[in-house]
Every structure is written in C-alpha cells, then in structure tokens.
Sequence to fold (99 residues):
Amino acid sequence: MDIKTNKVLDGIEMIVSGRLDTNTAPELELALKQLEPAKQILHLDLSGIEYVSSAGLRVILLAHKIMLPTGGKMVLRNPSEFCRQVLGATGMDEILTIE
Fold:
C-alpha cells in the first residue's frame, strides 16, 4: 500500500493505493492518527485501492470518527469500483460522504 499526504486549501488530501487489508490497515491507521483534525476536511482518495477488507473498512470509519469531534469531516474521493461495491454492500455508503 502507498499513502501520499498533501495539504490542500480546505484541509488534507490523503491518496491511498494498493491493498487495504489486515496487513496494511495499521499503516493507514498510524498515518490518520498523526493528523491534526481541527476544523478541516480530510479528502481520502481511494481511486487506487485494488482490494479492501473488513480491517480496511474499520480504518476508514476511524478516519471519519477522528475528524468529527473537532468539527472537521472526511470525504471519500473517487473510490475504486471494488471499493464502491464493498461500501454499498456494508451500508457504509449511507454513512460516509462519497464524491
């Protein structure tokens, strides 16, 4: 898995690619916990995700929870087709903001 983090005008963009599974989810979790949520938007770009497991979904939900208490929010950008199917099957597409 590869994670790139960039500052953008309204917050932070995190571009994640590869497999988001039991082996790689802790890496994304660590990167998320190092963010300073404040009142900003976390743009989590999932266009390069080839596979996501339940461990990966847990970390995506964690990102959402990290941003909320400070008035920030998370937006999923361009989830891959596989990601969209998993988000839809689990009902997470109803909870999260997806662009």
